[in-house]
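Chapter review: from sequence to fold.
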Amino acid sequence: MNKKLAIVALIFLAPATSFAADNVGGCGWGSKLFNGQTGLFPNAFAAISNGFYGTNTFGMTSGTSGCTSDGVIKSSWKTAMFIDGNKEALAHDMSIGSGETLESLAAVMGVREEHKAAFFRLTKDNYAKIFHAGSVSTGVVLVSLKEVLVSDSTLAQYSAAI
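The token string follows.
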């Protein structure tokens, strides 16, 4: 009986983990929780965590948590996590075009020193586009910020960090 159970478990777990050999659990919070770990169990638990909490689906739809809607896994989860944890302060800093939180976002996104002033000005000028309403979701902020960055020829390169 135990052998049959083990075989059934391997049949279900192997496909779920084999696609994620290079990126634990695919994308979603489970993949971030077990990031850097290798082997069957971290991959399986990351995939299970993603499935249980639904973060893969959310991530793929919103383009966050290391996911994109086109199926390509990218590493923009740091930006999403930063924005999610600092939305209020970031909104304030963007509204005035400066501040510690905006400076930190630029660092997380890898904005080079020579582009920071333009980045700060762009976020200030487009504050109403990025934060449409008082209480917007992280996904909306990410999509809006990416659109604003893409519209600027110098700063478009940083849209990949989102």
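Two observations follow directly from the output. Confidence is low (pLDDT under 50) at residues 6-25, 70-75. Residues 2-62 form one domain.
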